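are you around this afternoon, could really use another pair of eyes. what follows is a protein written twice so to speak, once as letters and once as structure tokens for the fold. i want to understand how the tokens follow from the sequence so walk me through it. anything you notice is useful, everything is just below.
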Amino acid sequence: MDLSHWFVRFNTSLGLALCALFGGSLIPRVVVGSHSTALPQSIERSTLADVLWPMAIAQIVPQCLPPEPDEHLVLVNQQTSEALEQLRTLLPDGSTSRICRYLDDTVIRVGGFANEEVATAWGEYLAQTLSVETAIVQPATPFADADTDTDVPPPIAREPSESVPPYDPELLEAGYAVLVDYADRPDLAIALQSALGEPVGLVVYRQTPYLLAIYSDSARKAGDVLTALVEADFNAIMVDSRNVVLMTPMIADAP
């Protein structure tokens, strides 16, 4: 099969596209068939791919969508399909991930996190596991004008605390977990620690963060802790620990 005609058409289309994209001034020499057009010699041919490829990709990668009203995002400073596939092996069920453009950067947008605590935990975990930079994006406040631009809100940079163990999410094994709904009240963690006499952890159960009071293979032991906490007016529940993701075993120091 004679592919010469197709090849000439391909080179012609590519040359025209690149000329249109860069105003015909950044390409050292475009060759189409037997014709060539010389451009400034100051641009080395060896750097052509380095100049054109990132700019061409920027025209293809879509803008990042803003978070839903009840969603938090994690932005990962990676841009390859290989990094995306590696990332997906670490993410929890129900999350979404795609490569997109945020401002002038190409990033991986990870969505589906119900609140800032969960998003922050996963952002820390991904940063440490993959040695990448991450940022948290909160949902925007309701727009006053429906025609207002829907850009992604600015991310919130996070610096890991040296006093808190690093996030290392892991699914708990078979057993019983007693969880306490802390309703975004940091002081409740201190109160729970005082009641138990030991540090408490942070977990995620059905995409909702909870304080972990106890994790045990003994239903009776877990039940005793549950009873004591309910009598102390804590909003506690006991669940199958196989459905619980441990984010960190300790979130606050004992008072």
